[in-house]
Task: inverse folding
């Protein structure tokens, strides 16, 4: 009886000891599930990721700066282009005074006639058609600006005859007629000396002694257009 009791206690003690050891092992939590190499690799990846983010942010800042600089240049060029376009438009409308090299043409009636005589012959006079022909030649020679007796000639300038009187921009113009043109003087001279372009004028110069003198000017000034501007085909843009 005593032996059985002792054996029972021994077996119970061994069983309790085994349970205690198992319980102790299961409660112990490992310090880390990853090896030291894995942790270092993750830290390196995180560092590379943060470095790449910093680089991309810096690149974005530089790209934005480049975009802002490009937009500023475009805006400046647009302003310059608009101003240049405006100046060209003002020049074509005769709203700016033009100075530079060019030519001066003096036209006058025959010295033997009086324009106010009732029986004066047209071939002895400078006519509106002569002035129109010269203006057409000057325009064809790409003149920057033209004037006749200080009347600026623009695209809408009328040059007409009323009897023996000549009206330019609706103003009475008396001889001598001084035509000035700013531009390429060599090209202008070449066109003016082309007799077939002014055959009537050159012929009457020989027969009737009308005056036609051409002078090259290193500097001359063409005044602004001082008449009303027609706005028939101009529309207001909002």
Result:
């Amino acid at each position: 009886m005593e032996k059985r009791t002792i054996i029972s206690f021994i077996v119970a003690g061994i069983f309790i000891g085994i349970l205690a050891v198992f319980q102790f092992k299961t409660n112990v939590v490992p310090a880390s599930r990853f090896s030291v190499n894995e942790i270092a690799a993750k830290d390196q990846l995180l560092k590379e990721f943060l470095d790449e983010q910093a680089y991309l942010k810096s690149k974005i800042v530089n790209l934005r700066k480049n975009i802002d600089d490009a937009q500023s240049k475009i805006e400046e060029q647009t302003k310059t282009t608009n101003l240049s376009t405006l100046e060209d438009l003002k020049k074509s409308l005769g709203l700016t005074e033009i100075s530079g090299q060019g030519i001066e043409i003096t036209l006058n009636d025959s010295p033997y006639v009086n324009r106010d005589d009732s029986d004066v012959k047209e071939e002895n006079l400078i006519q509106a058609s002569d002035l129109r022909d010269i203006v057409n030649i000057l325009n064809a020679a790409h003149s920057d600006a033209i004037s006749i007796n200080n009347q600026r000639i623009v695209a809408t300038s009328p040059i007409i005859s009323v009897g023996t009187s000549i009206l330019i921009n609706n103003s009475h113009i008396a001889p001598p007629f001084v035509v000035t043109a700013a531009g390429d003087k060599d090209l202008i001279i070449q066109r003016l000396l082309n007799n077939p372009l002014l055959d009537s004028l050159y012929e009457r110069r020989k027969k009737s002694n009308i005056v036609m003198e051409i002078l090259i000017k290193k500097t001359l000034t063409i005044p602004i257009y001082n008449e009303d501007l027609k706005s028939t085909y101009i529309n207001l843009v909002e």
About this structure: Strands lie at 98-108, 145-148, 151-153, 159-162, 165-168, 171-173, 177-182, 211-222. The CA atoms of residues 23 and 109 lie 135 Å apart.
